[in-house]
Structures are given as C-alpha cells and as structure tokens.
Amino acid sequence: MRASRSGMSQVMVGRDDELRRLRRLVDGSEPSIAMLGGEPGIGKSRLVQELIAGLPDTLPVLDGQADPGTLSRPFEVLLDAIDSCHRSGGLDPELLRTVTDASRSMIDRIQAGLEIVRLLTTPGPSIVVFEDLHWADSESVALFERIADLGGGRLLVGTYRPDEVTRRHPLADLLTRLERRYTVTNVRLERLSLADTSMFLKSATGRPPTYRTALSLHNRTGGNPFFLEELLKANGEANLDTLCDRPLPWNVAEALRRQLDDLDTGELRIVEAAAVLGRKVPFDLLAAVTGHDENELIDALRDLVRRGLMVETGDDEFSFRHALTREALVDEMLGRQRRRLHELALETLLSTGSRDYALVAHHARGAGRYLDMVEAARRGMHVYLRMGSPYQALQLAEMGLDELPDDVELLSQGARAAWLAGLLDDAQELGRRWFDTAATREERADALRLLLRLSWEVGSSGSMQQRVAALRAEIEPLGDVPAKAHAFAAIAQAYMLHDDTEQAVAWADKAIALGEKLGLPAVWVAGKLEKGSALVNVAAGVDDGIKLLNEAAQEAEQAGEWLLAARALNNLYNLLPGGPADWAAALERMRTFAERAGFESLAGAAYFQGRARLAVQEGNLGAALAELESARRRDRGLLRTRNGSDYHGVFFAGLLLESGELDKAETVVRGLVEQSSDVYTMLTQVSVPGLQFHLACKLGRPDQARGHLRTVLDAVGAVGVTGRDFAHDLISAGLAAGLTVDELRPVAEAIDDPLFDDAWRWLADGQLAEASGDHSEALRLYRAAVAEPSMLLPAQRGSGHLGAARCLLAAGHLEEAREHVRAAEPLLARWAGWRVAELTALRGRLGLAAPAPAGAGDQALTPREREVATLLAEGLTNAELARRLYISPRTAAVHVSNILSKLNLESRTQIAAWVRSREPA
C-alpha cells in the first residue's frame, strides 16, 4: 500500500465483510470484476491494500492510481500500474513505446496495453486495480473495460467516488456497460459505525476511548476515517477526551469551506442558518428562521443536495453531508449572529408548541435563555426516558444541572438515565450527588436503591452490602409509603444477586404485599421477579420460580414496565419448555422490551451472551464463539466505566480454551487480568484466576497452574461454592496437565451444594474416580451423570459418555464402550477442541469409523475445497498450498478449516484418508 494512503490505524476497521467478498473473488478460477465506491476518505484504498497485503508475494498485482491531473495524460493509470508490478522489468520496450506514442492509433495503443496486462498477469490468478477512476483519463477507462474481456483467473478492481461521476464522465457509461455485459460485484463502503469508530480510535492511539468521546467524535466526523485521522494528527499526544472540543485542523477546515465557494449570498445564508440550527434541521424551522417561502427554500435545498453539501435525512428534515462542514461554518460566524439565529429558532419552537425538547433546550442555551433551557430539560428527560432514549435524557439532565447543580429531580433522572445507558461511572457520581442533596428519607432511600444496583453492576460486593444496610436503616422509621415498598424490592434483588435465597424470598414477599396494598404494580411485579429469580437457583424451587417469572413477565408487559419485563425474560428464557427455538424467541422478546426501556446492558451485551449460551446449549461451539465475537466487536473500545470491564471476556476466554485457540485465549485472559488489577470484584475473585489456571494447564505449565489453583481455592473458600461447568472445566484441565486427584478434589467438593444439579457433581466425581484408577466407581458416576433427565449441557454429556466408554474399554467391554461413543457423537458433532479429540481417539481404539455428516462426500465440498483436499493428501503445508494455488496462506488455512468442519474430521491425516477412500480401486 502507498505510504501516503496507509492511515494511522494499525488494523483495518469495519471492512471485514467487504474484504472477505474480495478475497473470495481472488480465489475464483474465472475472471471477475469488483467496483468499490465511496465518498472521499472512506477507506477504498486501504481496503485494496489490505487485500493485496494478504496475497502471496508470487501472485501478480497491477495497482495503478489516477490523480486529479491525469485526465489529460492518456493511459496514465496503466503506466502507474506497470511501475507497481515486480514483473515489469521483463517487458518488451516496444510495447511500452506503443502505449505512450501519441502518433499511433488509439486501437494500437489499447491493444499494446492489453498485451502488457496479459503478460504481467499470466499464468494463474492475478489482480489488476485502477484506483480513483473518477479522475482517470478516458483512455485508461476504455482500457479498464477491455481488460474485462481478457481470459484467465483475474480480478479487476476499480475504485471511484460516486458523487464525482457526472453524466458526461467516461466512467458513467462504463459502469452501465459493465453491468450489462458482466457479473459485477459492487462494494459500497459506508461510514464507520459507532463501535467501529471506537475500534479505529483504539487501534490508532493504543488506548480505548470513553463512550462519550467515541460518540462525540463519531457524530463530529460522521464516521469518516480520513476526518478521524486528521483530528487525531492535530491532537498529537494529548488526552483523547480533549479531542471532542478541539478546533478543526486548518487543512480540514479549509477543505470543508472550499465547498462553499460557489454559493450565492442567498444560499450561503441558508447553510449558515442550517449550521446553527443543529445536526438535523426541520424544513419549517429553517424556513421560519431564514424568512424564505416554501418554494424558494425547496429550490435552494435541492441545489445544495445536488452539490453534495446537504442531504435529506427524513421527511422535511435536512443535514450536512459532513458534520464537520457545519462545524467549520459555525466557527466562522460572529457570536451575535449565532445568538440571533438561536433566538429566532427558539421563538419559533415555543410559538408552535414543539415537543422536541432537546432542540428547544439547545436553542435556549444558544440564545442565553437559561430558564427556558432548564424547563425544556426537565420535560424532555422524562419524555426521552419513556421513549427508551436514556442517553438523550442524560444529556438534557446534565444541561439542566449546569444551571441548577443541586436540583434533586435533575440528579435523580440523570443518574437513572446514565445507569440505563450503561454509563456506570456517571451514574454513580450523579447518584452520590443525589443522595447527598436529598432532603427526606424517601428521597435518600430512592437514591440508595439505584446506588445499590450500581454496586452490583461494577462488581463491588463490599459497597453493595454496606448500601443494603444503609437502605434498611433509612426505611426503618417510614410508614407504608411507596419509597418503602420500592426499597423492599431492591433489597430482595440484592439478596437474590448474592444467591441468598432465603433472604431474597422473605424481602420479595414484603415487596409483593406492600405493593398490592398501595396499588403499585411496579413493586409487586418486581417482588415476583426477585422471588422467582431466587427460586430457580434452588432445585426444589425451580417450578415455582418459573411460574413466578412467567407471571412477572406478563404483568410487567401489561403494565408497560419494560425494564421489569426484560429482566424477567432474561432470567427465564432458557428455563421455558419447548427447547432452543422457544428460548430464542423469548430472548428476542427480552431484547425488544430492553430496547423499549433503553436498558443497554440487556438490549446489547446480555442479548448477545444469551445467544451464545443458547448455542452452547445446542452443542454448537462455533456458533457460540461467533456470537461473542460479534458482541465484542460491537462493544470493543466503548468504555462505559473507568475500569473498562470486558463483559464477555470470561465466557469468551472459556470457550476459546474449550476449542483449543490458546493464543486468542491468552490475549483475552491477559486483558482480564490487567482490568482486574484496577478493581477488586466478585468476578476477579474466582473466574479470572480460574481462567489463568486453565490456560497454564493447557500450555503445559503445571507449577504455574498450582499457584493459580491455590488462588481459586482460597476464593472458593470465601465465596462458598463455585459454578458447575466452571468446576468441571478446572478438573478436566488439571487432570490433563498431570495434577493429582488430591490437588483437584477440593474443586469437586465445592460443588457439593443443594443449589446445583447432582449430574454435575457426579461428572466431576467420576473424573476423579477414573483418575484414581477406580473404573467401576467412575463408570457408575458417569452413567448417573448422563442418565435422563440431566442438566448437563451437550458437550459435558458427551464427555460423560466418553468417560464411561474409557472405563468399559479398560474392563474389556468393547461393545458397551462403542454404544457410549455412539451416544457421544451427536452431542459433539458441532463441538471442537479437546473433547472432540478424545472422541476421535476412542473411535480409533474401538475400531469405529467417523459418522458421515449430512451432505458428506464430494457434494459437501466446493470444487476449490476438493482441490485443496487432494493436495493435502499429497502432504502439502498451508504455505505450499498457497504457492500451488496462487492464494494467500490465510486463505489456504480457511479452506482447510472448512474441509475439517464439513467432513467432521480432526486432522490433515484424516482428510488424506478421506481422499484415498474415494479413489478408484
């Protein structure tokens, strides 16, 4: 990639799908065409360079670029491409002279150009790239079209800016003709999403931005990578958070203002007014402020849209195409001019009774009318909370607090909005200010309820217990008032979250009784929710708990208590009868309710984690990892708390260890360890040391593992018990690493608790009995663990069957052992890692062939995959495959992985055997 186009981010962000599409075209055996379109600075060149960087060095690449001055220089893009090709030194000089000889006919020159391309790109796959075709000379454009006629496995890529292709531009006709004659892959690069903007900032600076910073810069730049880079360059080494308020770099501001050079005075006044009116400008408001009648304004806006300066974003609503253009305009205006426009906008909004309170507050502040601003903020924050827009409500609350910093209503609604939006640090700060400012016990109790929940959210067990005590003391003198009823439900929730079922049920019953007495549906529904959530964790209470959670979900929905409805379904969905399809439907309902409540943690993180857990419950490890990958891409870099907690990290690292992806697991675990050094939470007590132990075992570091195990056991001693699957994972990893039964037995003993299903305990005890050599006892325990009904997940049930098979094999009962292996096969059919390796080993010892997967045989593989399989049977490595097939080593690895997955095989040796089994005798 050209150094000048490489960008600041070390990793290309937000273009994975587009890159995969292009790589598939490179791997094809037929010629193909891809057209990459997008606005300036959107990353077209970066995408091309990432594509080229992943190819083998031997694959021919011609990469030419047009510049604004090349329109008058025939074949300039071809000549630039020839310079980029390492093969060009061997070209016949006569061909080059023909191309550049203005006295030769155009046909001769195009034919010479085609011959040059053919010689430089054959034999085998190749890539020809013509960048910035909107600037290309007509001869280069004509040649581009003719290259498409050449035979061979060639990918022809053209990049262009759609907004700069006029009807008279030679590229306009070319695009139409290409679509008529060939199958063209059109790739339109859009602006980066908020999550992608955060990832870009993190990659470019080495540190993740806060949520507010990411959102501010995303709104400021519209997600355009070029503008982000320019702002970062101007910021230097300064704190990233300061970048939101820094003035535009002069080069960016000047480039943006040049868009205004051709505007007449009337149009300039319209865009200046629009710039002050905000990011989204209503037509009627713009008309009122500028004094234009409807037809005049329509004509002016149509011209501004045609020029690409503004866009119509909705019905009667307009925005600047680039938000920074608006900023550059406002920076140039006089303060009095800005205030006058704000005043006109405010008067118009107030006279029409506008309910767009955010807009009213914005213009009231701009006009210096602060009482109007506070009034709009008060009204608006309630409206936006009901709409499920907590971040907008928080912004209004903070706007009002700038003027009235000790206002209890603004503090209370702002704290709640920050919590719903997932901005926990902001929520805690506002919550503490709310508590300190509160004048009555009821107000302090309400503040403590939120602070109590926040203690759980940030993982602070100590402060949670202190706040429970403080809340109980605060409500003790109160009579039967709503604040006391709500406090009962909050205390029940705190005990439920701490797995103190007895206390949770007792306080939930108090909430239900007082809520019904006072006629508060939100309270009695919350009581049912907390009671049901506590009971489902006790074997004897599961049925009653499910019933209560169902009632809570239905009653909350009827009452419009969307947050309670979402929480009830989140705690219920995978306990419902009917299986995975019904669970998935309930999870989607949960997300809908969470979005209506504006509760970020359930609508986003918990939803994706729920989908991953459903995939695990279906025995599909690949799907679970894919869901968590999607969730982490969505959340990466969006620091909603100072410690930057990785919501999915523990679960994700555990699945990576399960699948054997140790490098990725080590990276995730390292991040969790670094995070836990800043904040001591219940999570860091057990889970993170457990992952460190597991990883050390997998990496063959037993002494290091023993140290981590001591930490885990100390934490388990403090907490009381440990998770079922967590204990099983530790025992499995420890035994595989050579730790003794005596060292691991305390882990199994820690799950000897009525909260947990016996099957998990039997599985753990069976593993230890087998490791002790007591195969008879181990067989009994394994059989008990996998007997129906069982709470074991498919992968663990598969391991139970394999354990039983090993015990039977040791006793010489081969046929019974085979039955258990066959029972394990469907349970592990979509799994991977060490469990599947054990299955494969037992098949070999028992003389069992791998079961044929659905669609197995030649039909399961694509033609390219069959070709790869044949070469694998010859013993080729990935690097050798890449050289033989003119593909990248990464692409070769993907083909190998797909073959293993489709044929349900575990190794290259098995692929070779599969190939040989299909050879004619």
UniProtKB/TrEMBL annotation:
Pfam families given in the database record: AAA_16 (PF13191), GerE (PF00196)
Question: PROSITE patterns, per this entry?
Answer: HTH_LUXR_2
**Keywords tagged on the record:** ATP-binding, Nucleotide-binding
Entry keyword Nucleotide-binding: yes
Residue ranges occupied by any HTH luxR-type domain in the UniProt entry: 854-919
- Family annotation (SMART domains): HTH_LUXR, TPR
Q: Which InterPro entries match?
A: AAA_16 (IPR041664), P-loop_NTPase (IPR027417), Sig_transdc_resp-reg_C-effctor (IPR016032), TPR-like_helical_dom_sf (IPR011990), TPR_rpt (IPR019734), Tscrpt_reg_LuxR_C (IPR000792), WH-like_DNA-bd_sf (IPR036388)
Give the protein's recorded name. LuxR C-terminal-related transcriptional regulator
Q: What lineage is on file?
A: Bacteria, Bacillati, Actinomycetota, Actinomycetes, Micromonosporales
